[in-house]
Amino acid sequence: MNTVQPIRDREKLEEMKEELKKRGTRDYLMFLTGINSGMRVSDIVKLNYDNVRNQDGTMKQYITIIETKTKKLKKFPLCNDLLVEMEKYTRSMTQGEYLFKSRKGENKPITTTQAYRIIKECGEKVGLTEIGTHTMRKTFGYFHYQQFHDEALLQTIFNHSSSSITLRYIGINQENIDDSYRNFSL
């Protein structure tokens, strides 16, 4: 099994967004959701209209789900940029409609395998090799850590059992080791 990495370079991150926009709003918004929420792809593909809009059609301020992997409740606010994009994207949708629909069948979500293909293909087009669906979650974690330097908070967000697992997961430990080698000389 190949290990995927977070996208650490903001310029590459923007290139990835642009490449996904070329494919369409669905794929772009799926990626945007992943990098701004830290959700696993198995939970992202299951999101539907009811997760982001109230019965009266107004936008919800929080997404609340039961995580597929952990069976734990996860509740988090949508950041402003994601809220704006999600509001535009879901305007013409109806209750129960999946956000990231497959082109096969009626109101079926894309599969995690298809999500992988989308991310992998676009990543390779912008020169990213160690990329997959977990890249979205890891990218969220990497930039969250860079901004807040709070490994305990990130550990809680990811439901990891220790902060060392969280740092290894987002590639901080390896990055620190690499930097120490580059800056060490006898």
Please characterize this protein's 3D structure.
By secondary structure, this protein is mainly alpha-helical. The protein has a single domain (about 10-180), classed as hpI Integrase, Chain A (Orthogonal Bundle). It has ten helices and two strands; from the N terminus they run ααααββαααααα. It has helices at about 10-25, 25-35, 40-45, 50, 80-90, 110-125, 135-150, 150-160, 165-170, 170-180, and strands at about 60-65, 75. Strands 1-2 form a two-stranded antiparallel ribbon. The model has no long low-confidence stretch (mean pLDDT about 95).
Largest sheet: 2 strands, antiparallel
Number of extended strands: 2
Strand percent estimate: 5-15%
Give the rounded overall mean pLDDT: 95
Topology:
Layout: H1 10-23, H2 25-37, H3 41-44, H4 49-52, E1 62-66, E2 73-77, H5 80-90, H6 112-125, H7 134-148, H8 151-158, H9 163-169, H10 172-182
Antiparallel strand pairs: 1-2
Structure characteristics:
two-stranded antiparallel sheet; mainly alpha; hpI Integrase, Chain A; 2 strands; 186 residues; globular; 10 helices; 54% helix
Give a nutshell description of this structure.
This protein has ten helices and two strands; from the N terminus they run H-H-H-H-E-E-H-H-H-H-H-H. With 186 residues, it is mostly helical. The chain has a two-stranded antiparallel ribbon.
